[in-house]
Model the fold of this input.
Amino acid sequence: MDFSAINYLSVLLAAIAAFIFGAGYYGVLSKAWMKAGRIDAVQARPGAAILGVTFGAELVMAFVLAGIVGAGEVTLGGGLFTGFLAWLGFMVTVMAVNHRYQAYGWDLTMIDGGHWLGVALIMGAIIGWLSVGDPSALPS
Done:
């Protein structure tokens, strides 16, 4: 991995897009998610601290994914494929194990897994697309 060639604008945009996607995704699936996670409506309202942690974590994810994408084919397709592999190999597997130990049903794993798949694909696509060629150049 070559972290020196990372396009920091792509990392920032990937994190912002993932954050917006998550808000929309859980907005649409909020009732099903709250039921699956045994969460009441008051618990489901995130405060500024939780939103800050979420965005910070997505920045870290985007940075690391950019380093991984940079080790392979830096294209839109390469970014999507790398994002998918990161989701499959790390995100959904860890979530599936944690949800089983926490006695949650597969419905929560499917909902959360869909969210993280979307995040990984969005981040991978943005990083792959914007990082092609000169790391400081935007596509024309």
